[in-house]
Design brief:
The chain has 125 residues and is mainly beta. It has no helices and 8 strands. It has one domain: Sandwich (Immunoglobulin-like). The strands form 3 sheets. Strands 1-2-4 form a 3-stranded antiparallel beta sheet, with no helix packed on it. A 3-stranded antiparallel beta sheet has the order 3-5-6, with no helix packed on it. The mean pLDDT is 85.
C-alpha cells in the first residue's frame, strides 16, 4: 500500500486597507458640517473571491449600504467593517470620518431712527 502525501496550505492573511474622502482643508474627511464622505476598501488575501462585507456605525454615522464593499455617502462618525472570506476568516477595521464644526454666524437687527431735525440714531438689537 502506497503512502499518500498530503500537503495542507494556509491561505494568505486577509488584509483590509481603506481610503477615505479628504476635504479641501486636508484635515477633515467631509467638506461641510452635516455633509457626507466616502470610504473605499481594498481587500487582499484570505480565500480570494467571495468576500462578505459587514458594515456598522459604532459612533454616530449613517448612510451604510448593507453588504456593499465601498460606501459612497457616509455621515461623520466611526464605522466598523468586518470582511469575511469563504473560509470564515475575517479582518476588522474601525474607520473614522471627521467633519468641520458647524459654521455659526451672528445676525443682528439694525434700526435707524431719524428725527425731524435731520439727526439719526442707530440701535443694534
Amino acid at each position: 500500500m502506497a503512502a499518500l502525501d498530503t500537503v495542507l496550505t494556509q491561505p494568505i492573511v486577509l488584509n483590509v486597507v481603506s481610503a477615505r474622502s479628504l476635504a479641501p482643508d486636508n484635515i477633515n474627511n467631509i467638506n461641510c458640517f452635516g455633509g457626507t464622505g466616502w470610504i473605499d476598501l481594498a481587500v487582499t488575501g484570505g480565500s480570494i473571491g467571495n468576500y462578505k462585507y459587514d458594515w456598522s456605525a459604532i459612533s454616530n454615522g449613517s448612510g451604510i449600504v448593507t453588504g456593499q464593499k465601498d460606501q459612497p455617502a457616509l455621515t461623520f462618525g466611526t464605522y466598523r467593517i468586518v470582511v469575511s472570506d469563504t473560509n470564515k476568516c475575517s479582518a476588522t477595521r474601525d474607520i473614522t470620518l471627521t467633519q468641520p464644526p458647524l459654521l455659526v454666524t451672528n445676525w443682528f437687527r439694525l434700526t435707524l431712527l431719524v428725527s425731524r431735525q435731520g439727526s439719526a440714531m442707530v440701535q443694534l438689537t
